[in-house]
Amino acid sequence: MNGIPRVLILHAYSADNAGDGLLVRETLALLEEAFGTVDATMLASRPDSFADLGIPTLPTVPTTRGWDRRTRAVLRRIDDFDLVVGVGGGYLRAGTPVELLKAALVMGPQLLAASRSSTPSVYLPQSIGPARFGTRGVLTRLLRQIDVVMVRDDRTFDEVAGPTLVRTPDLAAASIAAARRAGASVAEKPVLSIRSVHGRINPDIYALADRISPYDGYIQSTIGGNDDRPASATLSPARTIERGELMGAEAAPRVVVAVRLHAALMALAAGHYVVHLAYERKGFGAFDDLGIAPWVHRVNGFDVDTVASQVHGLLTDQAVRDDYDARLMGSAEKIRTARTDIVLSLQSAVGGR
């Protein structure tokens, strides 16, 4: 390769989902760290939502007439790029027929093109699976043709075995330790951010809401099937906080209960204390990597008394917050090392071309 590397970024979703928008921005930051300037093209489900990035972004959701001809043309010319990068996330899954259909129509052609390409390919930290309905064999074969597949949880690492897999923390973990403010007090009122999971809300969420009331609400995503507003409307918060207020650099520390992983990680990066009610394997992997595994629970199987007690402890006990901070700070070196390794993997992939 000579000059500025040409990079094709696959599997982006929508910036209207704050977590997915964060992962795209982290991807671009890693590429800049690795190469300085890159000539990037991106494929995304909602390309217009990334207009502010200033890079060509093409659609991946097919219409009744099939895939956009420009997107098809880019995938046909995938070998013209110097590097293919899959953004981090949890988009390669087939736990239900609907998930299988979405993955097959939107993500499948991108993965297939990357697996067949002679261009070096690096998939940034993933949660892969569940892979039901006979899909595991196909998915594993395709992933083995990707040069580096980074996975962000142990269950994925065990289930999708292969020589190209590397266990790596979620991209959003990098800036979390730096946000801690030793001895910080917190606002008296906690924040509760929820979503429906497979079309339902665990009734224990409402029992928890009663136990921690009064609380403020927060909405993480407002896009398509990932619109959290209907679920949030079933709560009774004192008020609903805007993203800039909760996630901004000057946000005062809060105690946050969050269902979406990247609502949890973004809140941690803003200096808050988070109890995560995880709906997928990725949440447990992330909180374990960060050293705060006691504060993650299954959203459809948590003990209300335990979670309410953890919220109360973080709200009222400085020693509990100090322990939380110390655990996060203890993970900082591992997280920094992992990020350095990601940058080196990107450089190595291009350097070997």
Describe the 3D structure.
The protein has a 7-stranded parallel β-sheet, sandwiched between helices. The chain has a 6-stranded parallel β-sheet with strand order 12-9-8-13-14-15, with helices on both faces. Strand 13 (255-258), helix 9 (261-269) and strand 14 (273-278) form a beta-alpha-beta unit. Helix 1 (18-35) crosses helix 12 (318-351). The chain is built from 12 helices and 15 strands. The model has no long low-confidence stretch (mean pLDDT 92). The chain is α/β, with parallel strands linked by helices.
The arrangement of helices and strands along the chain is EHEEHEHEHEHEEHEEEHEHEHEHEHH
Percent helix range: 40-55%
Largest sheet features: 7 strands, parallel
Oligomer classification: single chain
Taking pLDDT < 50 over at least 5 consecutive residues as the criterion, the unreliable ranges are none
Q: Report the strand count.
A: 15
SS class: alpha/beta
Helix tally equals 12
- The fraction of residues assigned to DSSP E strands is 15-25%
Strand order of the largest sheet: 3-2-1-4-5-6-7
Output mean pLDDT: 92
Please state the CA-atom Rg, rounded to the nearest Å: 20 Å
What would you call the shape?
globular
Distance from N terminus to C terminus (CA atoms, Å) equals 7 Å
